[in-house]
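Need residues for this backbone.
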């Protein structure tokens, strides 16, 4: 039976005509580490007059504040960018862009030092040195952290503090970016927003601009259980795809192996048990107390996330158990209170005391390694549109993100965008009439969409399940919303990225990194050493496999010991 065609999704979101307009040289969509870093750097560029930051909720509501483990960089004695590069490439399972990785690891240390100079208070040892720890996939202690396990929150605090004393940067909160406005050449001319407030159901306006920096985060809410906040509905990726940008490697969705299991009916954002807990000595066991990661990988419990997530899923299937256990009791109360106070409080709030009890854990959607395809300077293939952070596919992560590289990626590549964007600012242009097919699916379809994606496009994937998922997503695409509201906009964005993700997962008939095909259990470097790109023509997606460039001789092919 031939694989079903991809669902046709709306070419643009149904929305009323803009009721207000404003102007800014650059619009930054998103307020995490990627967006705020870009805004702060652009603020100081002499050729940029005005910067407008748009965030769907409040400034600190995105994914950055939830980052527990830390930020990775070669800052410790004896560590080098070359060693960080090797660990990143190994975790990426042959799908990383080597030059992008080298940019990340070589520019990363100075970027972190600049973050410290901005006012970020990282943890230090008693002798005053930066405190560094280790996470899965790393062969060195190179994870800088803050507040024990509140690194993202501290970075977010420092960035917001800098924004608040920057009158040159205008901030619009509670605003959804609806669609890009395009000029006659297909370049950025502006963006439509819906500003949400009490009693406002139709606050649509237009911001005319010369460039847009997309830093809107990931797509975690595509799945029923995720570590992502509620705002992570793939809005930026969907907006870019509708505007003509290419999305790359959407099939590489990282499922974090140790997410606290709250029961079969729990939905939405779930509590993350940071990989740093295993970095400090915790280990996984099954219901019989057996340490099943022993022998699975040279790093055992500190193996890359895809390896650990697969091992947990296999053990769950073998035993019929809905979760495994994380044993961190031996760390002791004092260590828990000092190093992981946030996780300790979260576990206790759910009735588990990790000082004396095992923590129930299971994989859940965590991070999208794919996104808007960019070059080494954050440029997309839509003139005037740049992307950074989780919304982008810079080539750094490949098939599986190395722990704590995400904050670093947003930091490094936002700095790079700010370095080139001022010299590339396009002339002001007028948006042309939007001829794309407008549409909207009802917000009530979200739960069904999430169930389809979790059950058939989650950790375990097969051709049969993926084909069924595409058929069910096609049925959802045929529904029409009765009202135009935030829930329908978000659900339509989720459907847009979910449809592309499911088709990309079907095309990649191999197991690589975070993409696990039960019917193709081996990695296939002959057929699939490349990327899956998605483009859209008025809502009709086209996928193609892009061969990888010739492999650099220094590219590691085995896990270092």
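Answer:
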């Amino acid at each position: 039976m031939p694989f079903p065609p991809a669902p046709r999704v709306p070419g643009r979101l149904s929305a009323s005509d803009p009721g207000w307009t404003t102007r800014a040289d650059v619009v930054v969509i998103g307020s995490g580490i990627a967006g705020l870093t870009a805004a702060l750097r652009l603020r100081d560029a002499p050729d940029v007059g005005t910067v407008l930051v748009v965030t769907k909720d409040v400034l600190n509501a995105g994914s950055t504040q939830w980052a527990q483990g830390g930020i990775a960089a070669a800052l410790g004695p004896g560590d080098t960018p070359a060693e960080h590069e090797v660990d990143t490439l190994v975790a990426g399972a042959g799908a990383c862009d080597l030059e992008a990785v080298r940019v990340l690891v070589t520019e990363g240390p100075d970027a972190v030092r600049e973050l410290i100079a901005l006012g970020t208070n990282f943890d230090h040892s008693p002798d005053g040195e930066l405190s560094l720890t280790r996470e899965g996939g790393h062969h060195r202690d190179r994870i800088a952290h803050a507040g024990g396990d509140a690194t993202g929150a501290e970075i977010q605090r420092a960035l917001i503090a800098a924004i608040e004393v920057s009158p040159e940067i205008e901030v619009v909160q509670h605003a959804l970016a609806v669609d890009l406005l395009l000029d006659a050449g297909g370049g950025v001319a502006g963006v439509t927003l819906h500003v949400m407030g009490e009693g406002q159901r139709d606050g649509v306006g237009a911001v005319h601009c010369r460039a847009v920096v997309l830093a809107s985060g990931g797509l975690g809410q595509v799945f029923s259980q995720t570590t992502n906040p509620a705002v992570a509905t793939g809005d930026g990726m969907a907006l870019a795809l509708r505007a003509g940008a290419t999305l790359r490697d959407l099939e590489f969705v990282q499922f974090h192996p140790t997410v606290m299991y709250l029961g079969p009916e729990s939905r939405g954002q779930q509590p993350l048990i940071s990989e740093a807990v295993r970095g400090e000595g915790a280990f996984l066991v099954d219901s019989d107390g057996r340490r099943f990661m022993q022998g699975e990988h040279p790093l055992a419990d500190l193996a890359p996330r895809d390896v650990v997530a697969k091992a947990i899923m296999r053990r769950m299937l073998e035993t019929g158990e809905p979760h495994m256990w994380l044993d961190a009791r031996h760390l002791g109360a004092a260590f828990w209170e000092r190093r992981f106070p946030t996780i300790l409080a979260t576990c206790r709030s759910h009735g588990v005391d990790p000082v004396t009890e095992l923590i129930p854990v299971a994989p859940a959607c965590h991070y999208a390694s794919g996104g808007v395809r960019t070059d080494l300077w954050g440029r997309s293939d839509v003139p005037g549109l740049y992307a950074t952070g989780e919304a982008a596919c810079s080539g750094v992560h490949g098939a599986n993100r190395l722990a704590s590289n995400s904050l670093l990626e947003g930091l490094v590549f936002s700095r790079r965008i700010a370095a080139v964007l001022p010299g590339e600012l396009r002339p002001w242009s007028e948006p042309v009439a939007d001829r794309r097919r407008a549409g909207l699916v009802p917000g009530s379809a979200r739960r069904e969409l999430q169930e389809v994606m979790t059950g058939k496009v989650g950790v375990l994937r097969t051709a049969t399940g993926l084909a069924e998922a595409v058929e069910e997503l096609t049925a959802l695409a045929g529904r029409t919303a009765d009202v135009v509201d935030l829930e329908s906009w978000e659900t339509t964005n989720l459907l847009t990225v979910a449809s592309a993700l499911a088709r990309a997962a079907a095309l990649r008939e191999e197991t690589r990194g975070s993409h696990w095909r039960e019917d193709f259990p081996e990695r296939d470097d002959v057929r699939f050493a490349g990327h899956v790109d998605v483009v859209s023509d008025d809502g009709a997606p086209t996928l193609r496999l892009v061969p990888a460039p010739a492999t650099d001789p220094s590219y590691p092919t085995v896990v270092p010991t």
